[in-house]
Amino acid sequence: MSTPPTPHGYDQDVYYAPGWQPARPRTEPLAVAALPTGLLLGPVGVGVGAAALARIRRDGTRGAGLAWAGIALGVAVTLTAIAVVVALLVGDAATRPLPAEVSEPRSAHARQLVLGSCLADLPDDGEVSTVQVVPCAEPHEAQVVARTDFPADAAWPGQDVADARVSRVCTPAVLSGDAPADGVELVVWSPSEASWAEGDRTGLCVASTAALTEGSLID
Hints:
Order of helices and strands: HHHEEEEHEHE
Shape: elongated
Low-confidence stretches: none
Largest sheet: 6 strands, antiparallel
Helix content: 25-40%
Strand order of the largest sheet: 1-3-2-4-6-5
Strand content: 15-25%
Radius of gyration: 35 Å
Mean pLDDT: 84
Number of strands: 6
């Protein structure tokens, strides 16, 4: 007796129903969890996605695309969070008040100046941002001799009003009796509308001398 030939692609000992297909592997639950975890928790999502890939390789489950997407999202969220923290730290450092007397020359933002800060030179008229602060014992051209601060929650009062308020504290009366009688010019530095929008509430009175001087102009 001869055995009839087996139709191509079928095992003669296995019976197939029309349309039968092997069951698809299940989707790895950790791969599904990687997406929301990466979005909400950043680095935790990276770990969940990596664990999902390990399980997929071990168990033959599906979801590698979801796992990789969760890892990518977690990395993006983590990098964004790091960038925000760095920006906040840099911004805080740029506005933190200086010591009353610095030990060595350093660059600083004008908003960091305090009463008594000595400047290597007086910036040109206009918007002032970075200045060179030096110990007052070293030769310098200018010094902060008065300071007034606007309330943190105050609305922008207008440039004329801001200038007038700072001008009220910028008078020769703030200078010490040892200050030169001549050759001292008082300059008002007040917030501009643009710097006010960035949180600037500092008004300064800066005294400049015709020639470099050493020591302080205030008591």
